C-alpha cells in the first residue's frame, strides 16, 4: 500500500494512494488517527477496513497538503558515509562501522514545506536519502529477521549546513538546523518495493539540473544490516525513523565550486517506486517574517 498523510479542508488524515487519487482512511475508521502511528502500532486497523477501500470516495492527491508521516517520532537516526563514492568525495576513509547521528524533531518537516536556509550560513546542502519507518520494535534484532521490523519506506532530504557540520568532530549542529530535513510525502509498504528497498534509482535535482543520481543497491550497509547494528545498542520503537545515507554528488563536493541551495529554488529528491519529495528553499528571515 502507498500511504499519504496530509491535510484537506476536512482536516489532517491518513490516505491510501490509488494513482492520482486517494482514499481517506481516517474517515473509514477514526481510530486510525491523523498520522501513521496508529497503523504502525496496530496493523489490524487497516485489516478492519480493507473491504471498504475499493468503493470508498476518492480525493485528488493534488488537493492534499502533505504532513509528516509520523507527527511525533520517538527517535530519528541517520547514517552517514553509506555510499563508497560519497565517502571518497568527502575525503573520508571507508569505515568498518556506520557513521550514525541523530536528528531532533524541530529539524524535520513535511514534503512541500519550506526548507530553510539559516541566516548564519549560506552553505545549505542537499542529501537524497532512503528513509524507513520502524514497524515492530525490538532490541538485538538479527539481520535475518530485520526486514520484518520495517513498516514502510519514504524519501528524505537530509539538508545539511556544511560549515556548522564541520565545526566539531560530531556532526550534530550542521544536521539539526530547524526545518532542514524534509520527509515524504509518500510511504510505501515493503511489498511495494524490492527487499530492503534495494536496487531503486535515487536522485536529487533542481529544475533540469541533476545533482545526484545513483541506486540504493550501492549502499554499503543495507536496511537489514542497519537495523541489526542499531538495535545492538538501543531499543527500536514503532514509529522511529531511520535514514540510510546519501550517494555522491552533494553540493560541497562539486568542482570547481560548491553548489549550495539558494532561496527561490525548489529541490526535489526522487526514489524510484516511492515518490518525489519537493521543497522550496527560503531564507530564514523571510520564513520568520511570513510566520509572524
Automatic annotation (TrEMBL):
InterPro entries: FAH (IPR051121), Fumarylacetoacetase-like_C (IPR011234), Fumarylacetoacetase_C_sf (IPR036663). Keywords: Metal-binding. One of its GO terms (molecular function) is metal ion binding. Residues 75-282 form the Fumarylacetoacetase-like C-terminal domain. It comes from the Bacteria. Gene3D superfamilies: Fumarylacetoacetase-like, C-terminal domain. Transmembrane segments: none annotated. The keyword Metal-binding applies. It holds the Pfam family FAA_hydrolase. GO terms for biological process: carboxylic acid metabolic process. Belongs to the FAH family. This is 2-keto-4-pentenoate hydratase/2-oxohepta-3-ene-1,7-dioic acid hydratase (Catechol pathway).
Amino acid at each position: 500500500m502507498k500511504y499519504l498523510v496530509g491535510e484537506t479542508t476536512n482536516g489532517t488524515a491518513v490516505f491510501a494512494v490509488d494513482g492520482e487519487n486517494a482514499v481517506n482512511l481516517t474517515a473509514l475508521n477514526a481510530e486510525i488517527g491523523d498520522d501513521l502511528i496508529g497503523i504502525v502500532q496496530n496493523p489490524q486497523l487497516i485489516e478492519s477496513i480493507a473491504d471498504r477501500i475499493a468503493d470508498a470516495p476518492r480525493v485528488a492527491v493534488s488537493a492534499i497538503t502533505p504532513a509528516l508521516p509520523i507527527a511525533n517520532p520517538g527517535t530519528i537516526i541517520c547514517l552517514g558515509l553509506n555510499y563508497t563514492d560519497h565517502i571518497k568525495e568527502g575525503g573520508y576513509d571507508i569505515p568498518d562501522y556506520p557513521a550514525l547521528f541523530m536528528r531532533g524533531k524541530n529539524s524535520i518537516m513535511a514534503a512541500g514545506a519550506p526548507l530553510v536556509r539559516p541566516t548564519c550560513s549560506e552553505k545549505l546542502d542537499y542529501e537524497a536519502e532512503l528513509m524507513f519507518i520502524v514497524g515492530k520494535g525490538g532490541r538485538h534484532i538479527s539481520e535475518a529477521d530485520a526486514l520484518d521490523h520495517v513498516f514502510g519506506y519514504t524519501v528524505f532530504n537530509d539538508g545539511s549546513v556544511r560549515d556548522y557540520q564541520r565545526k566539531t568532530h560530531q556532526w550534530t549542529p550542521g544536521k539539526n538546523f530547524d526545518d532542514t530535513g524534509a520527509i515524504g510525502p509518500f510511504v510505501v509498504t515493503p511489498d511495494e518495493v524490492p527487499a530492503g528497498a534495494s536496487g531503486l534509482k535515487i536522485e536529487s535535482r533542481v529544475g533540469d539540473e541533476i545533482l545526484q543520481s545513483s541506486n540504493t543497491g550501492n549502499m554499503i550497509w543495507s536496511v537489514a544490516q542497519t537495523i541489526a547494528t542499531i538495535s545492538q545498542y538501543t531499543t527500536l520503537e514503532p514509529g522511529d525513523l531511520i535514514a540510510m545515507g546519501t550517494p555522491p554528488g552533494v553540493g560541497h563536493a562539486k568542482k570547481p565550486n560548491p553548489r549550495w541551495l539558494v532561496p527561490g529554488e525548489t529541490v526535489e529528491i526522487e526514489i524510484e517506486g516511492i515518490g518525489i519529495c519537493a521543497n522550496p528553499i527560503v531564507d530564514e528571515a523571510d520564513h520568520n517574517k511570513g510566520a509572524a
